[in-house]
Specification:
The structure holds two protein chains of two kinds. Chain A is 41% helix and 21% strand. By secondary structure, chain A is an alpha/beta fold. Chain A has two domains: 59 residues, no CATH class; 157 residues, 3-Layer(aba) Sandwich (Rossmann fold). In chain A, helix 4 runs parallel beside helix 5. Chain B is of the alpha+beta class. A five-stranded antiparallel beta sheet of chain B has the order 4-3-2-6-5, with helices on both faces. Classes of the chains: A alpha/beta, B alpha+beta. Chains A and B meet through helix 1, strand 1, strand 4, strand 6 and strand 7 of A and strand 1, helix 1, strand 2 and strand 6 of B. Strand 7 of chain A pairs antiparallel with strand 1 of chain B, so a sheet runs across the interface.
Chain lengths: 236, 116
C-alpha cells in the first residue's frame, strides 16, 4: 500500500465516509494494484461492486473482466445510542467498546452524564428526542433506553420507532413495559412498530447484577445484528 | 448538540489493525499487512480480518484462530524483503495443509502486502 493511499483511507475512516479499498489479486503479474473507491477514474464495474460491498457491509473477492479484486469494505462504525447515563450504562458501555460500536450516551441530567463516568463514549446532555433528531439513527444504529423514566425514555423510543434503527431495546419489567407500550400507542404507534422494541430487554440468562444485565443486553444486540436464531425465536 | 466529550475511537473494528500498522510504519518500522480475502467452510475470521507484522517481530490482529499466523508472518517477512505482494492459500485441499492446515477444516486466502 502506498503512503498516499494509506493516508486517503485513514482520512476517509476518520471522516466516517464509507469507502472500499480494492486490491487486485490476479492475474499474478498485476497483483497489488489498489484503488480507493468510489473513484470516478476507476472502472465503473468496480465502483458498482464496491457500492454493493458497502451496502451489505461485507468485504469480498469479486471477478471483473477476468481479474480478481478483493473489496475491503470500510463502513463507518455501527452506533450504539444509550439513553440514560445510569449505573447499567456504566457497566454496559465499557463492555461494548470491544464490539466495534461507536458509543453515544444521552442524558440531560448533567450529574449523571459526566465524561469521567464514561471514557471512550460521546456524552450528550440534550433531551433524548432532540439528541436523536440530531444523530439521525440509520440502519446501522442501535438505540437502548435505560432510564425507567417516561419523560426521558418515551421521547427516545418515539424517535427510535420513527427511525430505521436495527435494534431498539428498553429496560424495564414486564409491567413497566406494558405501561410504556400503552403510552407509545397513545402517541400513534401501531402494534407492528411496537414489536420492534425488545422489552424486557436482553437475552434471558437470569441476569441479576448490572454487569450481568449489560451482558444479556449486548448478547441480544449481537444476536440481532448477526441474524442469530435466538433473536428470531424471540421475535416469533 | 451539546457534546461534552468525544473521545470515541470510531474504529469499524475494535482492533484497528490498519491504523496500528500505519503507526508502526510512521515510526520507521518495516511493516507488512495480511488480509483475509476469501473464506470457505468454518474458517474462524471473516474476509477483511487483518494481521500486521513488523520485521522487528511485532504482530497485531489475526487472520485465523492462530493456526496460520506463523506461516503468514514468514510470508510477511519475505514480502517486506522483496516488496512483492503474495496471495496465500491455506486449507485442507492444499499441500500446505501438511505444514499448517486449519484444524477447523476451513479454507482461507490471505493477501500479504508491504506498507510502502
Amino acid at each position: 500500500m502506498t503512503p498516499a493511499l494509506a493516508q486517503a483511507l485513514a482520512a476517509a475512516r476518520k471522516e466516517h465516509r464509507p469507502v472500499v479499498l480494492a486490491t487486485r489479486l490476479a492475474p499474478p503479474g498485476l497483483a497489488g494494484t489498489q484503488h480507493l473507491l468510489p473513484d470516478p477514474e476507476a472502472p465503473a464495474e468496480l465502483n458498482k461492486a464496491a457500492e454493493a460491498a458497502l451496502a451489505s457491509d461485507q468485504s469480498r473477492t469479486v471477478t471483473i473482466g477476468g481479474e480478481q479484486w478483493f473489496l475491503h469494505a470500510h463502513n463507518p462504525p455501527a452506533r450504539l445510542i444509550v439513553v440514560g447515563a445510569v449505573h447499567i450504562a456504566q457497566a454496559l458501555l465499557p463492555m461494548a467498546v470491544g464490539l466495534g460500536f461507536a458509543l453515544i450516551v444521552v442524558d440531560p441530567r448533567r450529574s449523571f452524564a459526566s465524561p469521567e463516568r464514561f471514557p471512550n463514549v460521546t456524552v450528550l446532555t440534550d433531551w433524548p428526542d432532540e439528541a436523536l433528531d440530531a444523530l439521525k439513527p440509520d440502519t446501522r444504529s442501535a438505540i437502548l433506553t435505560l432510564t425507567h423514566d417516561p419523560k426521558l425514555d418515551d421521547p427516545a423510543l418515539d424517535r427510535a420507532l420513527k427511525s430505521p434503527a436495527f435494534y431498539i431495546g428498553a429496560l424495564g419489567s414486564r409491567r413497566t413495559h406494558a405501561a410504556r407500550l400503552q403510552r407509545l400507542r397513545a402517541l400513534g404507534h401501531g402494534e407492528a412498530e411496537l414489536a420492534r422494541i425488545h422489552g424486557p430487554v436482553g437475552l434471558d440468562i437470569e441476569a441479576v447484577t448490572a454487569p450481568e444485565i449489560a451482558l444479556s443486553i449486548l448478547a441480544q444486540l449481537v444476536a440481532v445484528r448477526r441474524g442469530a436464531a435466538t433473536a428470531k425465536k424471540e421475535a416469533a | 448538540m451539546s457534546e461534552i466529550a468525544s473521545k470515541a475511537p470510531f474504529a469499524d473494528d475494535a482492533e484497528d489493525i490498519l491504523s496500528l500498522a500505519a503507526a508502526w510504519r510512521a515510526a520507521g518500522e518495516d511493516v507488512a499487512l495480511a488480509t483475509v480475502t476469501e473464506t470457505w467452510g468454518s474458517s474462524p475470521r471473516p474476509a477483511g480480518s487483518q494481521l500486521a507484522v513488523s520485521l522487528s517481530g511485532k504482530m497485531a490482529g489475526s487472520v485465523s484462530g492462530g493456526c496460520i499466523e506463523g506461516a503468514v508472518a514468514d510470508a510477511a517477512a519475505e514480502t517486506i524483503r522483496t516488496g512483492k505482494p503474495q496471495l496465500l492459500d491455506f486449507g485442507v485441499s492444499n499441500e500446505r495443509a501438511w505444514e499448517v492446515g486449519l484444524a477447523c477444516g476451513g479454507k482461507v486466502k490471505v493477501f500479504v502486502e508491504k506498507l510502502a
